Amino acid sequence: MFSETVxxxxxxxxxxxxxxxxxxILTQGGDFKIGEIxxxxxxxxxxxxxxxxxxxxxxxxxxxxxxxxxxxxxxxEEADAQLAEAPLDGVFPKDFYVTTNQQTFVTxxxxxxxxxxxxxDCGVVIDRAGLRASAKKFHEVRRGMEIVVGHQGIKVMPVxxxxxxxAVFEFMSTSISLEKPKSGVIREMAAELQRAxxxxxxxxxxxxxxVVHSGAVSHLEKLIDLGFVDLLFGGNALALHDIxxxxxxxxxxxxxxxxxxxxxxxxxQMRAINAIREAGSISRAVETGVxxxxxxxxxxxxxxxxxxxxxxRDDGPLPEVITDxxxxxxxxxxKITGVTTALMMGTMLHSMAVANLLPATVKTLCVDVNPxxxxxxxxxxxxxxxxxxxxxxxxxxxLVTNLAR
Amino acid sequence: MRQLLLCPPDYYEIEYEINPWMSRARGAEVPVAQAQxxxxxxxxxxxxxxxxxxxxxxxxxxxxFTANAGLTIGRRFISSNFRHExxxxxxxxxxxxxxxxxxxxxxxxxxxxxxxxxxxxxGGDVLFCGYKFRSDINSHRAVADILGCLVISVELVDPxxxxxxxCFCPLPDGGAFWFPDAFDEYGQRAIRDHLRDLIDVAxxxxxxxxxxxxxxxxxxxxxxxxxxLVATLKDRGYTCHPLPxxxxxxxxxxxxxxxxxxxxxxxxxx
Lengths: 405, 270
What we know:
Number of helices of chain A: 13
Structural class of chain B: alpha/beta
Helix content of chain A: 25-40%
CATH topology of chain B: L-arginine/glycine Amidinotransferase, Chain A
Strand content of chain B: 15-25%
Number of helices of chain B: 8
Order of helices and strands of chain B: EHEEEHHEEEHEEEHEHEEHEHE
Largest interface: A-B, 16 and 24 residues
Helix content of chain B: 25-40%
Strand order of the largest sheet of chain B: 2-1-15
Shape of chain B: globular
CATH superfamily of the largest domain in chain A: putative lor/sdh protein like domains
Radius of gyration of chain A: 26 Å
Radius of gyration of chain B: 17 Å
Number of domains of chain A: 3
CATH topology of the largest domain in chain A: Rossmann fold
CATH architecture of chain B: 5-stranded Propeller
Oligomer: heterodimer
CATH class of the largest domain in chain A: Alpha Beta
Number of strands of chain A: 19
Largest sheet of chain B: 3 strands, mixed
Number of strands of chain B: 15
CATH class of chain B: Alpha Beta
């Protein structure tokens, strides 16, 4: 969305100029927000209205503003953003501007610069020479960097909530009850993944080990085989349980086929870790024929990039697991460029962490058997998220069936 | 007694085209124009008013349309900023003349076009101002700041009726006669909200610039060609004086365009 703020002054209420201007914004395909309004108290007092106009393109916005000028609208020139130096490595100046996951512009020397990436909970570091504005995390801050402070000269373009339900992602559903009819929603999700692929957008899958526990490995494998996964984020557990299943047919020592406890099954996990460590990496294990099936093997086979982030309760971990949290965040942030759709399944904390890295423009789809996990993810303020409460196996089965058609 | 400013049509002719009425191919008949102006002068002289004449200037043919010189309230004269280069040369002559006659001349910021009484007419204690073709809406705000009165800005949408005085004529009893189609729907509503007893002029009469009339008490001097309007006004107790204005219509003007009130109002609240 593109926006411009205009002011109207004069006898704009009695002359019906204000309603005329607002009507014109809407009929020309724009939208408005009244920032400030002062209505004259007495008959001869003039009124004042500050109107923020937004439009889907620069052309539409320019045309609206051009037309409104003849009704007296004056465009407010945006003041420059204020900057201050970072006092120490890893420390922002006081009153630093904290980013959202929305598209954001900073005005510098009268020029609007887009802050990249659209990453929440960051500060904005300015490179005057290169006229660049970058969202940076604490650990990326170096003493003396110029950082945006205050709120002046900053424009945030919220992703607009669509008013009609033309596609499943275009409306936000906070109703995530189990009783919701799932088939239609899954069908539309499948269509959305199809669209993302056709439009060249990257599809990110974030998955927890529940994918393995629930017996959905073959469905996710199929999803990868069909080319609907470009990037996989998970933890040590996802990869490990998948590999244990591939090597021994168990997950945490339980036979996934019939749900019974395998003899000395608790050893399987450790043996799986050992086998991969011996091979050197998951990729090497696939290449040398140690690992032949499962989610991770499918990723290696199809060149799907994956980032495995470690946690404090990990066994092993597997060789590719990044155990430094900040390093893992950086690795994920680096990979998400170009992601337009994210499918998050069966892991609340990992999904939250990833959602914090994604710009608001990315369509997110969250599936979990726990309604609390789904609502936590869908109610983060993004207008482009959709939640579905479902066990993962039937969900993935149906999704893949739809996509395979 | 009302005081009016007129300008003899010594140099009047169609020298350029700045509105849909003007065509250099269809010039004004100079002797006829002079006779028509003389009849207006004589008619106004016979009514309850005093007429002042500003000397005309060569190469400023439209100086004859004194209504566009500015807006006079009490002893203050708000000078026009003409939109068209062709008429911009008139402003200093009018301003000097007004100053010499004891008026305080007030200038609006140069970037705000304002064409005087042509686009600013009082109806009751409200100043109705037209915008788009000639005056800028932001000039209305500047005028409201200077005068401290309520200004209703209305958009003109028909290029033939490019000044508000070509399609709107307030009456002293609080009403007005007007051609509604010359305004956009918001302008029509704003006028209806502020004036009662509006008389709609039919399109075939409006086209003769019937609204371009000089109202002096119960007397109304207007271009001929509006029998229905004249009958309606007669019923309301007005005496109408229709005059031939064909040669000035060729420039997009008529009785009111040829006349400026000095002042239009003595003070804001009357």
